[in-house]
């Protein structure tokens, strides 16, 4: 069983909600222990949405962290401002009022990272980052942070389009480029980059299997503008399945030979080099998009 901390933006795409439900399903199956969930963007609402979903799924015990102190980039703020009607976290919290920011106070995100890691056994924690790397960069920068990560974290899974041999890594790294460059350069333990899921479309089967007031479905309906049978890419769900070591063991993905990914924040581009230091790998799908979607959606729906 993998001990997982999920780091999520939980705001501008519905696959974060799907990924959190997948993580709950993995916990129920005995594949993962959820150490905590940390919302990486500078707003109280993602943490409130996470709390609402955890409460609805019967897990009030899961610690939730929030980014109180580190502003988002101007580019990210502009992206968020362009889609106010598609943000789902506030609607989730309003459906579960105990999760609203005036009734639930999450922990400060970096402090929660430190607490969870300090309590963990050495080399036991997998961090799955499906959002911005802002708080992970701050964790590394704090006194003793890098040493704490080196001692406690066995793997960082980062959802980014970091395909080999080079390219642009996409939303999560480009929306916080300085943080992404710092983490990929300074992280002291192995990193698995997960670029897969763009053509793995999920959500329609979920809509057929759950009640109309389901919170996970609410996220897909809000993001999809109410489109019936809306389907969305499954980047984040696949990263969570990879973090739990389920994707590769089930024959749905394989990792590359070890190398080192180098990210240029000025040009928002990356390239792979020969390995040095802790290894980096890139994940690739080994099954068809339709087979992969059915596999992902089975986890998304079973928690309900």
Automatic annotation (TrEMBL):
Residues 4-213 form the Inosine/uridine-preferring nucleoside hydrolase domain. Transmembrane segments: none annotated. One of its GO terms (molecular function) is hydrolase activity, hydrolyzing N-glycosyl compounds. It holds the Pfam family IU_nuc_hydro. It comes from the Bacteria. Gene3D superfamilies: Ribonucleoside hydrolase-like. This is Inosine/uridine-preferring nucleoside hydrolase domain-containing protein.
